[in-house]
Amino acid sequence: MKNQFLLFAAGASLILSCQTEEVTPEIEEIQTEELEITAETISTIQSLSLNSDDVETITTRFPDGTIETSYLIEGDISISKSQLESMKVGKTNTKQYRTYNLVESPRTIEVVGFTGTGFNQNLTAKQQDALTEAVANYNDLNIGLTFNLTFSNDPSSADILIFQNPNGAAGGVAGFPSAGNPYGFVQIYSGMEAFTLEVNTHVLTHELGHTIGLRHTDWFTRQSCGRPSFGELANPNGAVHIPGTPYSFDPTSIMLSCFSTRVTGEFGPNDIVALNYLY
């Protein structure tokens, strides 16, 4: 797998320290629904300037035992049916941004790295170290968002809960903000344990970027994945260019659709420009 470019989500699989007590899920609340990828679904996705190639449905089990079915878009972006429908009629403002919504700022975001043992979704020691470095990436920028990281088996205080999906290969899954709040979950595949700390830091920094509204910087071509085809054109509801960042492919961005084993886990210079502009 040396120097091979890797998708943030693999196939049909998903992707999203220690306390003495653990959260033991005794009751599992099923919240699944049948989702169909219809022509209307694809049209809605395209209208939001999301890449509609290879849309899937995925089922996620959360650490509290609940299960949710959602759409998987662009390989690592989870959007529920209700969120997709709510994104149809949105408001724009004078700020140009990568996604439909941003997080209200300034604010402190509580990030919890899950350490409970329910469903084998606790973060490994390497993933905890990577999450610590990923949060530091953002806090070192001194933008309008501050991330307060704790490791716990109790997710109740989390604005963003980070947990391991034990059934995946490489990458992670997150989603976009809504109602001024960050997306509430980041999954990281258990297969990331085979990769370096730097690669794990890269993936978690990338997925945290989605939770606060960053798009894939090559969403329109997915060039980092070796795809020559073009996606959809931007519109004010979906993907508007951030001033000061390039229109063309930026190989240094941590928000590329796919990553290689040579990544450093650090922001590229244009990622820093984008975050300082947005927040």
Account of the 3D structure:
The longest helix has 15 residues, at 125-139. This protein has helices spanning 39-47, 81-86, 125-139, 197-211, 269-278, and strands spanning 6-7, 30-31, 56-61, 67-73, 77-79, 107-114, 145-152, 160-165, 172-173, 185-189, 258-259. It is globular, with a radius of gyration of 17 Å. It has 5 helices and 11 strands; from the N terminus they run E-E-H-E-E-E-H-E-H-E-E-E-E-H-E-H. The strands form 3 sheets. Strands 7-6-8-10-9 form a 5-stranded mixed sheet, covered by helices on one side. Strands 2, 3, 4 and 5 form a 4-stranded mixed sheet that branches. 20% of the residues lie in helices and 18% in strands. It is an alpha/beta fold and 279 residues long.
Shape: globular
Low-confidence stretches at least 5 residues in length (pLDDT < 50)?
1-5, 9-32, 89-97, 229-237
User: Whole-number radius of gyration?
Assistant: 17 Å
Chain-averaged pLDDT: 79
Strand content: 15-25%
Main-sheet strand order equals 7-6-8-10-9
DSSP, total strands: 11
Span between termini: 36 Å
Q: What composes the largest sheet?
A: 5 strands, mixed
Listing every helix as H and every strand as E from the N terminus to the C terminus, the arrangement reads EEHEEEHEHEEEEHEH
Number of helices: 5
**Structural category:** alpha/beta
